[in-house]
Design a protein that fits this description.
4 helices; alpha+beta; globular; 266 residues; three-stranded antiparallel β-sheet; two-stranded antiparallel ribbon
Length: 266
């Protein structure tokens, strides 16, 4: 990039101030590769909408979890089973289970799962279509990224789920927040800080272990675009790549990588 008379830092600062002001005024909208608006309450950035505070973090039935005995469907796991983690095998401490029924108005955005299609991320990754809730984070490039931020409209999509009156959800808790493997994809386990009361069997945990006394630590940093200013700054970074300044974070790079892979596949 040739910017005579203007230093990189000066240019970046000026461009950031200008575009942030414009975006916060609502005159520009930055969208993912499909250009879709994902949330009724916020504009989309890198393929998703803002985080929904009512969202859950879960797997859907049929998700194959890596264990010491091979892959098994998440709904067949039991407390004490050994699952594969990024740090070796660890026993399942608890499994949250919930059955949601579709409201008369239809499924809310927070409850619509994200489908990551077979090989969307790399050859045979996922090994088969992976269905997770919007807020369930994938472990990519050293950070945790909620699934909704990877939506590209083709290989990673938001499912309307209108075909079913119910939605069955599962999540796995270990002794610590960890990364396990679902259909070959590195994903997070249940973070107890988010609350177990979203599950129908929440009382089971208290019966087994009593009240929590320790606050769970996150396995890795979570990159999430929820606040309007965060989304505006992300849009600025995306715009600056046109001028040779690649200031995208890991979430944006992952989204763009999978979107480019989808375009190459046709």
């Amino acid at each position: 990039m040739d910017l005579p008379g203007i230093g990189r830092r000066e240019f970046l600062a000026k461009a950031t101030r200008t575009f942030t002001a414009t975006l916060l005024a609502g005159s520009l909208v930055a969208c993912g590769s499909g250009g879709h608006r994902r949330s009724a309450r916020s504009r989309s950035v890198i393929g998703g909408g803002a985080a929904d505070t009512d969202a859950v973090s879960c797997f859907l039935p049929g998700t194959r979890i890596g264990t010491a005995k091979g892959t098994v469907a998440v709904e067949t796991l039991r407390i004490g089973d050994l699952v594969q983690t990024a740090s070796g095998t660890q026993p399942v401490k608890w499994i949250g289970r919930s059955l949601r029924r579709r409201p008369a108005a239809g499924w809310s955005l927070a409850m619509r799962p994200v489908r990551i299609r077979h090989s969307a991320m790399a050859q045979n990754v996922p090994s088969r279509d992976l269905l997770v809730s919007r807020e369930h984070s994938l472990f990519l490039d050293g950070v945790l990224i909620p699934a909704y931020q990877l939506i590209n409209g083709t290989t990673i999509t938001a499912e309307p789920w209108d075909h079913s009156p119910t939605l069955e959800l599962f999540n796995i808790e270990l002794a610590e927040h960890q990364v396990i493997f679902a259909n070959g994809v590195a994903v997070e386990t249940l973070l107890a800080n988010n609350g177990r009361d979203q599950f129908d069997n929440a009382a089971e945990y208290a019966l087994l272990y009593g009240p929590d006394t320790v606050t769970a630590a996150k396995y890795a940093r979570v990159i999430r675009y929820g606040r309007r200013r965060d989304r505006a700054m992300a849009s600025v970074r995306r715009w600056l790549t046109r001028w040779g300044l690649d200031l995208r974070d890991a979430s944006m790079r992952a989204h763009d990588r999978f979107a480019a892979r989808a375009q190459m596949a046709g």
